[in-house]
Structures are given as structure tokens and as C-alpha cells.
Write a structure and sequence with these properties.
Immunoglobulin-like, 6% helix, 39 strands, flat, 3 helices, five-stranded mixed sheet, 550 residues, single chain, mainly beta
Amino acid sequence: MKRKVILFLLLLALVCGGAGYWTWQKNSYSKDILKLELLGKEDATVAEEIEYTVKYKNNGDIRLEEAKLIFEYPQYSIVEDNILRKEIDLEDIYPGEEKTISFKTRLLGKEGDIKKANVRLSYKPKNLKAKYESSTSLATRIKSVPLTFEFDMPSRIEPLKDFKFRLNYFSNIDYPILGLRVVADYPSGYEFKESAPRDLEKKEWEVGVLNRAEGGRIEVTGQLSGGVGEDELFRAKIGTWRDGEFVVLKEAIKGASIIEPSLDMAQKINSNPKFTASPGDWLHYEVSFKNIGKDSLDSLILINKLEGNFFDFSTIKSDYGSFQPGDNSIIFDWKKVPKLQILSSMEEGSVEFWVKLKDDLGVAKNSEIKNTITLNQAREEFVTKVNSKIFLSQRGYFQDEIFGNDGPIPPQTGSETTYTIMWQVKNYSNDVNNAKVKAVLSEGVRLTGKIFPEDQSSKLAFDSQSREIVWAVGDLKAGEGIMTSAPNISFQISFTPSEAQKGKLAQLIGEASLMGEDAWTKGNLETKSPAIDTVLPDDLTVNEKEGTIQ
């Protein structure tokens, strides 16, 4: 029995000794044997390119084998291959050897967010079976997000009355942000009506790609219900969806108080409350106001603030209003307008002014002008859409390089002379649908069938009874013909003068009209180009004498 106890104790000592040796051996390879560092910026601007440097060194005297490095980018980082976890098999790390590996990325998040990168390096010392791992991390704070995102809305709102608010955004980030979206959070008493651009389920909008120095605006119309004196909060955030989660870049918040309605305001332009303007129009603004409250109002000032690059502010006319060029406001003072001195309950009044729109509005899609009226604590915004400006050029030539016309010049009775008619169209601002050009061929004139370019031949039609020729241009994008090449068509005509036309000029084709529907305003557009006779005013090789029929 005694021998068994001794044998057991010896066996136990061997086991404990082996375990102790293994533990000692394992502990002898502490973290100091392999020094692992993760270097990088502690503060960064959102989407700024940053570089993480992983540095490792074998401080021991034994080679480290089967080394594997795992680097994890911070959550939602922008990397070229979209893989946020990198696994790299390393070569053996010899005693005293030091190496570095770099990882580049861009961080996404809102200001103040902490983004953490992690690195782990596993290895096995030579001649040992045990595996070891060293790890470290680095936290980087997003110090700034150079992205403007804010509400533009009144702070005092009448209940159950349509009002607009805007979410304006503008990027100064030195990198394009992809897949941007805006999400709004309304108070419980808010009823959404419509928005521009169109919404995704009433409170989300797709922005898409936003480059540096680019921005935009989301305009939302709705109503707010609630008791007078209640305060409500509107919230919104702009960000991007990544890995099924919405990454917020910026947040905005705006408070509004519900006030008792006291004034009702309306606007007419050229006697029409739903007027659609056109370039070059004279606009006669009539602004009416009514006290719908219980108490009289006195010493009122009514302000009209005109917004839009299309106004010619040098043309403003008003008998009682004064124009302030700094903010483009027309101010009506109670000292000049009797109804603004004292406005009793249910009493109403009006003011008026005139202003002209510029003839050339440039290239601007979905054009509009705005008048924001402020009276006492009431504020009303009126937006007027502006039609696109379309342009048509009708020209005629004898000398041209398209068809090579022939026949006598001046034209001779009984003899055929051919000419080239060229049509060209341009569209300055809003998209235009179903554009077409029409003109009537004069007596004695016929189409020869030659059309350039040939792919337009199927779009040119001729009615032999009415002698009307029609070019179905189709849809015109905003800026087409201004920012891009202008759609055009050329066709050849033949003219044989009659005896009755001898000694006279003859009309070849009548006045041409370009028509279409403005996709933004839904208005019908039309512009004209003069008729062409045998003098051919655009062909410098033909004068009036050579245009007179012989």
C-alpha cells in the first residue's frame, strides 16, 4: 500500500511538473516578445483619407512561425473592395525583425463619433506547439463634418393651414459621398401633403451622389394641428445606408410654436391667383390681406421679399411701396397705406406693384420665382412657376453644302430652282414634351424628298391638302441646344414661278412655329420664326435683285 502511494505521488509530481513547465514556457512568450502597434490619426474629418500603420517586431530570440494578421476597419468605413476585415498570412518573423503594413480608408459618421480600428496578430514560436496572439486598437474621433444641413421654416405656424419648410444641404467634403438620403421626423400633429423632389414614403428622399461644392433643397408642404401655444419639434438627418443601417452624417432640428390665426393673405399676378409666368413678362402683383382675428391691428408694415434670379429689379414700380435692393424687398409702410394704419377685425386691404422678368433666364431647370409676404407675425410664401424659353430658327439657302441646289438665280418663270430650308430648335430651361415645328409651303413649292440628317426623315410629314409640313421633334431636355448640340433638320424644296409672279418676290415657306408642352408648368409653349421669300435673307450670295422673279 505504501509503495502505491509513493508511485501515485511520483506520477502526480511528474504531471504537475510538466504542466508547470508548459505554463512557464507559455508565459515566457509574453506580449513583450512580439511588439504590436497600431498607428494613425486620433482626429479626422469625415471622408478624409486616413492611413493606419500596423507595426510589429520580434523582440525575442526565437523565430515566430505561422504568423497571421487580422485587421478590422472601423464600422462603415469606405474601402475600395468594401471588405472591412482583412486577413493576411505573414512570413516568418525572425528575431529582431520589424515590419509595417498600411491600410487606407475613409471614415463615415457624425461629428464626435468615435471610430475604432482593431488588429490582431497570431503566431507560433519555433519548436513549440502553442499559439499566441497579440492585439491592439486605435480610436479615431470624427472632429468635423463639413456638410451644411439645416431647416428653413417659420418659427410661428398657424394651425391647419398649409405651410412649407425646406431642408437645405451643401457639401464641402473633399470626397463624393454616395447613396445619400435625407430622413425627416415630424411631430405627431403634422400632416404631410407633398414634396419636391418626390418623397419615398413621405419622409425619406434620395439625394444620390453629392460632390464637393454641390448642394440641393427638399421642399415639403403640409399642415400642423394642435392647440395655440403648443411647441413642436421637427427633426431630420442626412446620411447613407451601409450594411442595412443608416449612417448619420448630420442632424438638424427646428422648433415651431402654434399661433392663433390673425391675418389671411392672398396674391394675384396679372389678376390670376394661379398665374404661370414666362420670360419677358410684365408682372402685376396684387397682394390682399384681411384681419380674421378679434382685435384691431395698427401700425402695420407689409414686406414682399422677391426671390429668384429671373426678376429685373431695375423695372420695379409701385405707388406706395419702397424697394430695398439689399434683400430685394418691397416695403409698404402704414404711414403711406391707410389700411395698414388701422385694420379692424374682418376688414381687408390690398397693395400692388409691377416688375418685369428678364427676357433671357439662362439655363435653369424647373424655374420658379417666389414672393414671401410678411405682415405683423403672419408669413406667407407664394411660388410662381416660370415657363421655359424655346427658340426656333428657320433659314433658307440657295448656296449650301448639304444638297447642292441648282436652277436659275434669279428664279425664272416656268423653270425650277431648288432651295434648302433649315430648322433648328433650342430649349433654355424646363424639359419640354412633344415639341414640333410647323410651316406651310407656298403655292408652286414642293418637297423634293431630300432630307438631312436621314434619321430625321421619318419625323417629317407633309399634308398635300393644307400644304402644311410638320417636324415631330419629340421631347427637349432643359438646356438642349444651349449646353448641347441643337436639334436640327434640313430639307430641299423646289420652286417653279408662275407668269403672275414675274417681276415680284415670292414667298417660299410661311412663318414657322415651334410648339410644345412645358413639363414643369404644364403650359403650352409656342414661338415663331419669320417666313422666307426668294431674297433668302440668310444667304449672303443672294440679294434683292437676284430674288426678283424674271
